[in-house]
Amino acid sequence: MYKAKIRLAYRIVIDNSSTFLWDKYVWEDTFKEYLMQNQQFNSKENPKNTFKELLTENEKSTQLHYLVGIAANGYVEQLKGNFHRLTDVLGNNYYPFVNYQLDIINTDITDISKHKIGLTFYSPLLALIDIIENNYLVSKNCEALNGFKTLMFPIQPHLSICYYQKNTFNESCENEKDRHN
């Protein structure tokens, strides 16, 4: 029996100081995409240089989070559903994810060095068995009859439970996943 069905969210921030090559590619391509897409929302008469300024001028510019996020899609697909920078406590298993969301923290069309984005990776539904010594003890299988194959992820900054459903009916994670997709 498990305590709850959960979904974890892990967020990374990418800016000009990022050192991973993957981050640099995502950073550069999302900036290029922002330069193209912001033209739809920016005024020709009174253009705004920063994303924050653009947001105050045109509320529809919130669509830029999604539109710019498309530029990261190919890079995210390369990860094949496992984010390798976050491992279980043994260092063997990577953080599994089923989707992601990009948000623009800020950017400036005149200065690429001010481009800053966040990427949040969402896990599949997991069975939360327990929290032991600051670690989430989870299983990808919610229907185990004779025990669970488990993973332990350390509780840490930028890793959060973003969905929680207390287990009261012993419903499977797979059935729940079908309803939310």
What would you say about this model in short?
The protein has five helices and nine strands; from the N terminus they run E-H-H-H-H-E-E-E-E-E-E-E-E-H.
Structural class by sheet pairing and helices:
alpha+beta
Give the number of helices. Answer: 5
**Number of E strands:** 9
Global shape? elongated
CA gyration radius, whole angstroms = 19 Å
Quaternary class: single chain
* Terminal CA distance: 24 Å
The chain-level mean pLDDT equals 91
Mind explaining what this structure looks like?
- This protein has helices at residues 21-37, 51-57, 64-69, 73-78, 173-180; strands spanning 4-14, 82-87, 94-96, 99-106, 116-122, 126-132, 135-139, 151-154, 159-166.
- It is α+β, with helices and mostly antiparallel strands and 181 residues long.
- The chain has 5 helices and 9 strands.
- A hairpin with a 2-residue loop joins strand 6 (126-132) and strand 7.
- Strands 1, 4, 5, 6, 7, 8 and 9 form a 7-stranded antiparallel β-sheet that branches. Strands 2-3 form a two-stranded antiparallel ribbon.
- Helix content is 24%, strand content 33%.
Compile the SSE list and pairings.
Blueprint: E1 4-14, H1 21-37, H2 51-57, H3 64-69, H4 73-78, E2 82-87, E3 94-96, E4 99-106, E5 116-122, E6 126-132, E7 135-139, E8 151-154, E9 159-166, H5 173-180
Antiparallel strand pairs: 1-5, 1-6, 1-9, 2-3, 4-5, 6-7, 7-8
